[in-house]
Write a structure and sequence with these properties.
seven-stranded mixed beta sheet, 19 strands, 12 helices, alpha/beta, six-stranded parallel beta sheet
Length: 358
């Protein structure tokens, strides 16, 4: 079958090959035919080495498709079922799951260390234990979540990561209050979803911050009340909040510099929500006096900060009701053979989300 493979960490191009085989099928596993997958910035971060991932590997973790086969012991799934892929499934038994913090379950991360593809030259890993830039993939049954028939594959794929992450940051983690002021730094697919989450929650002002003009324009279409470049952010803070700072600031870039900017633009007693996935050697610093004196809450948000299955259901319900726009997030579409064009679109900021049709 065909799949896009990164041979070594640090390479900026993927190699689309036709000699890749999905492996590992057996008890508790399902084999899926991938129909659509989104390109998330985390895929680029894994390729560059910002996020740890063994190589060679097949990127992609935001996918949807249909069940080809189910292994022994799998219940609730059958051949032909339409599913989205959950890259961080809950085991149900660990302390995090028992506390109701299923997004912190480590079972999914353990899958990332087991190859689920192979080529004539050896084993190939799937990013985050999945690897959706492939025609087929074998995953644990918990990674395959059934979707209703009215949800297109490309919409389901986005719900599998970016939409759930962004909506959840605003709704689950920060719990944005009605009539509040919000700023969102970084307006790709996840940032736009955060904006939509803040709008659903009833925020009065939502300021989008991004260096790319097309993304600022998109943010306005999705619910931002205004959109500014990073250089204009200080003026927006003064104008919208009389210099006090925003009630909520979301950092959706994954860098300490933008996290620091977010902190400085959060009002005293307000909330900084860190959504972007950054590098292990990039340190965010606050001094002990300001940490105490300003009483700003610093809340990281992992995969939307809540039960992902409930979050999927909520995203579908909001989409059906017309409260959020998911079709509009897809600004580009390519076939698997054009995957490197999609990478360039993401790096340049041209694309919010590119749908790879497989």
């Amino acid at each position: 079958m065909r799949a896009a493979v990164l041979h070594e960490i640090g390479q900026d191009k993927l190699d689309v090959l036709d000699d890749v085989e999905a492996t590992g099928f057996g008890p508790g596993k399902v084999k899926l035919r991938v129909r659509a997958t989104g390109l998330c910035h985390s895929d680029l971060s894994a390729m560059s080495g910002v996020l740890p991932q063994p190589a060679p590997f097949v990127p992609g973790h935001e996918g949807a498709g249909e069940v080809i086969d189910v292994g022994d012991g799998v219940t609730g799934l059958k051949q032909g079922d339409r599913v989205l892929m959950c890259w961080l499934p809950a085991c149900g038994d660990c302390p995090s799951c028992k506390r109701g913090q299923t997004q912190l379950c480590l079972a999914g991360f353990m899958n990332a260390g087991t190859p689920n593809f192979k080529r004539p030259g050896g084993d190939v890993f799937g990013f985050a234990g999945t690897g959706t830039f492939a025609e087929e993939v074998v995953v644990a049954a918990g990674c395959a979540v059934p979707i209703p028939d009215d949800v297109p594959y490309e919409i389901a794929a986005l719900i599998g990561c970016g939409v759930t992450t962004g909506l959840g940051a605003a709704i689950n983690t920060a719990k944005v209050e009605a009539a509040s002021s919000v700023a969102v730094i970084g307006c790709g697919g996840v940032g736009i979803s955060t904006i939509q989450g803040a709008r659903v929650q009833g925020a009065a002002q939502i300021v989008a911050v991004d260096p790319v003009a097309s993304r600022r324009e998109a943010a306005l279409r999705f619910g931002a009340t205004e959109a500014v470049s990073p250089e204009e952010f200080a003026d927006a803070k003064q104008r919208v909040t009389a210099g006090e700072g925003f009630d909520y600031v979301f950092e959706v870039v994954g860098r300490s510099a933008t996290a620091r900017t977010a902190y400085e633009n959060t009002r005293r007693g307000g909330t900084l929500c860190v959504v972007g996935a950054g590098a292990m050697d990039d340190f965010f610093q606050v001094n002990m006096f300001e940490l105490f004196f300003d009483e700003k809450r610093i809340l990281p948000s992992m995969y939307g900060g809540g039960d992902v299955l409930r979050s999927y259901e909520r995203a579908i319900a909001l989409w059906r009701a017309g409260r959020i726009d998911l079709e509009g997030l897809i600004t580009h579409r390519v076939q698997l053979a054009g995957i490197n064009d999609a990478l360039d679109q993401m790096r340049s900021g041209e694309a919010l989300r590119t749908c790879i049709e497989i």
